[in-house]
Every structure is written in C-alpha cells, then in structure tokens.
Design goal:
429 residues; single chain; Cytochrome Bc1 Complex, Chain D, domain 2; two-stranded antiparallel sheet; 3-stranded antiparallel sheet; mainly alpha
C-alpha cells in the first residue's frame, strides 16, 4: 500500500514538473500571446499630449516661482515698464482657470484676450501662440484642467504710469499683433512645416532673437536678427547673420544637439537660453527637435550689420600682451593655447562667432560670472566655467576679453574697462 501511494505521489510530482516546464517553454519562446494591457484612454492621451505641448511652449516654467507650486503663478517678469506677475493657471475656481472653458482658453491663446475680456500684456507671447491650432490648444487646456488646483491669488502687476493703462495695448496690438493659426507652406516639406510651427508658435523663439523697440514690440521684417533681452543684460544673437550665430553652415545635428542637450560641437548655451533648454526643449522628441533644426537652418541669411573696419580692431600692444598673459594663466587648461577648446565640453574660442559678435555683453558676463550649460537628460553632468569677477579687475577682464576677440584670426573689436564695469555694476556678485 505504501509503495502504491509513493508511485502515485511520484507521478503527480512528474505531472506538475512537466506542466511547469511546458509553461516555461511556451512563455519564453513566444508560443502564448502576451497578456493584454489596458490601452490608455483617449482622455489620457490628450492630457499627456497637452503636457508635452505645454512644455514646448515653456508654460510650466513661467507659471511658477522657484520652489513654488507648479502652474500656480506669482513669478515676477521684469520689463522696461515695470514688473508683470504671471497668473495662476491651475484649475482653482476662484484664483485660477477652473471656471474657464476650452473656448475661453483658445480665445486667450489666439487673440490675447482673457476670459473677462481684458487685454493681456505681450509678455504673454500670444502674438506667437496665435499660430497654435485649436486641437493643440484644447490638449493644453485638458492638461491644465487635470492638475491639482492651487488656491493662490494672483499678484497685481506693478507697471509705471501710463503703461498700467491696458487701453494702450490697443495701439500695440494694431502695430504688432497678427491673429491667425499657422498655415503650412505647400512648397516646403512636412518636416520643415513642423519645425516652423514649433519655432514660430509654441517656441516663440523670435520673441528673444529679435530686437525690441521702445514700445516693447518688434518688426516681423527683423525677425531672428538678434537683440538685447530687456532687463536681463543678455544678448540673443542673430540666427540669420554669419557674423553672429547664423546657422546656415551648421549641421542639423549640431543645431538639434544645442537645442535639446545644451551643448554641441559648435557651441554651448548659457543664460536665458540655458533656461529654455532646461525647462522646455530637452523634453521634446528627437523628431520635433530635428524639425526645428531643419527650419532654423533654412532661415534666409541676412547680414544687416556693416563689416567691422580694420581700424576699429586696433588694439594697444600692451593691452594685448596683458590679455595674452592672463589667458595663458587662467584659460588654457580648458580652452587650449590656440583657443581650440575641447568640444563639446569646453567650447572653442577660435573662430567662434559668439565670441566676436558686435555686442560683447555675453562674453563679458561669462568672464565675470561664469556659468553652466543646463543639466539635461542627454547631458546630466555639464561642465561649467568658473567666475573671474573676484580675480580680475575691470582692466584685466577687458584685456583678456580683447585678446580672445582678436587672437587666432578672430574678427572682434576691443573691450573697454568701462564696458566691463557697466555689467559688473548691474549684476550681483
């Protein structure tokens, strides 16, 4: 009896083991279909797409204070006319956009008119957002309605008279606002059109890379020709001039790397552009970044600035020698004796158009204050440049900058101690 029981138990064990082996083979060799997973709902897909588009438009970065709650507003935006404070755009009924409809939101994006009929100040880039399609606007609105509401009252703007009178915006809008969704150019590829849509619309790139006049507006005919960024003491270079940051001879890969990563074989981003890469562009898909690069590379070249006269490049020999000695002592370890750098981590200074631009503001700021490119998904541990404001006085900083701008065949002009001092005074140490 015991033997029979043992045989039965042994057979049962063999059946179990055989079943496990058969199941293992079937599962590991693809004989059985994979377990079905629930596909995301249409609503979830729309919300996810809206978040992606909101990052492309830099909404998430602007509508929060550092360390504050996401999209709850309160951030000060300095302008030549006073400070503007971005609003709460969480779905709080009382202090946010909880009572808004998709129609209200699209009207704001498309026309720059708020739900209550008030005209928005153009620090909100509605002149660019007007190009955003209704479908994309609805997706962004769906995302904003999906976040947790934050009860945080909006802070009133602090604009000087007469700029605090919103009726004056009617004149600004007549001069600088052209409503209308983006219309694809049938003569261009789908990729070029996608890039144009992102650059002109959500990316609002021309808002920085075009000079702003005394009225706070910019001419469409001067788009992407560069200009000072108001109240930030940074110069956004021309993207159309080969004397500045014209991209015609860049590869689309180098342009895309700079946009998405913050560094490339051709250059590195600092200042406001580093914030844009960190908060927005690093989250874009490779396809969208490549499309933007294709469009930017195709911008028609426009060299409006006259060539620098040779006499304007003359440098006092003693200043040049002082600058050379400072450079060899402080800069060669990263940028090399001949200014060739160690791309992409330490950018070259020889034949670097960002070094020889007519405005030396960015170069002065880098020497005085140093900086880091943004930490991004594809460049998580960026190399930075240390500040030298505590090491170099105005004359020494001007000398080394002058040397860099004219050495190795560079075609820049000298930097004066007064130019260095002007920025040292306005930038906190």
């Amino acid at each position: 009896m015991r033997r029979r029981t043992t045989i039965v138990l042994s057979a049962a064990v063999l059946v179990v083991v055989a079943g496990c082996l058969i199941a293992w083979v079937l599962l590991h060799h693809g004989f059985l279909p994979p377990l079905a997973t629930a596909a995301p709902s249409a609503t979830t897909r729309t919300i996810d797409r809206g978040e992606y588009l909101a990052r492309a438009g830099d909404c998430i970065a602007c509508h929060a204070t550092p360390g504050g709650k996401q999209l709850a507003g309160g951030r000060a935006m300095p302008t030549p006319f006073g400070d503007l404070y971005v609003p709460n755009i969480t779905p709080d009924d009382e202090t946010g956009i909880g009572l808004w409809t998709a129609n209200d939101f699209y009207r704001m994006m498309h026309t720059g008119i708020s739900r209550d009929g008030s005209l928005l100040y153009p620090a909100m880039p509605f002149a660019s957002y007007t190009k955003v399609t209704r479908e994309d606007s609805d997706a962004i609105f769906a995302f904003l309605q999906s976040v947790a509401p934050v009860h945080q009252a909006n802070r009133p703007h602090a604009l000087r008279f007469p700029y605090n009178n919103r009726d004056l915006l009617l004149g600004w809008r007549a001069l600088y606002m052209v409503e209308g969704e983006y219309v694809p150019d049938a003569a261009q590829s789908a990729q070029w059109n996608r890039g144009a849509y992102l650059v002109q619309g959500l990316g609002h790139c021309a808002m920085c890379h075009t000079a702003i006049n005394a009225l706070g507006g910019s001419s469409e005919s001067k788009a992407f020709e560069g200009g000072m960024i108001p109240n930030q003491n940074w110069y956004a270079p021309s993207l159309t001039s080969n004397r500045e940051a014209g991209l015609g001879d860049w590869s689309t890969k180098d342009i895309g790397d700079l946009l998405q990563t913050g560094i490339s074989q051709r250059g590195t981003v600092y200042g406001p552009m580093a914030e844009v890469v960190y908060d927005s562009l690093q989250y874009l898909s490779d396809d969208d970044v490549e499309a933007m690069a294709v469009y930017l590379k195709a911008l028609p070249p426009r060299d409006q600035a006259p060539a620098v006269a040779e006499s304007a490049r003359l440098v006092n020999p003693s200043v040049l020698e002082q600058g050379r000695r400072i450079y060899e002592r402080q800069c060669t370890v990263c940028h090399g004796k001949e200014g060739l750098g160690q791309a992409p981590f330490h950018p070259p200074l020889a034949n670097n158009r960002s070094i020889v631009m007519s405005s030396p503001v960015n170069a002065i700021r880098m020497v005085l204050n140093g900086g880091y490119p943004p930490g991004t998904k594809k460049n998580a541990r960026p190399y930075g440049m240390p500040p030298f404001s505590h090491v170099l006085d105005d004359a020494a900083a001007a000398a080394v900058l002058t040397y860099v701008r004219v050495a190795w065949g560079n075609s820049g002009t000298p930097v004066s101690p007064a130019q260095v001092n002007e920025l040292r005074k306005v930038i906190p140490e």
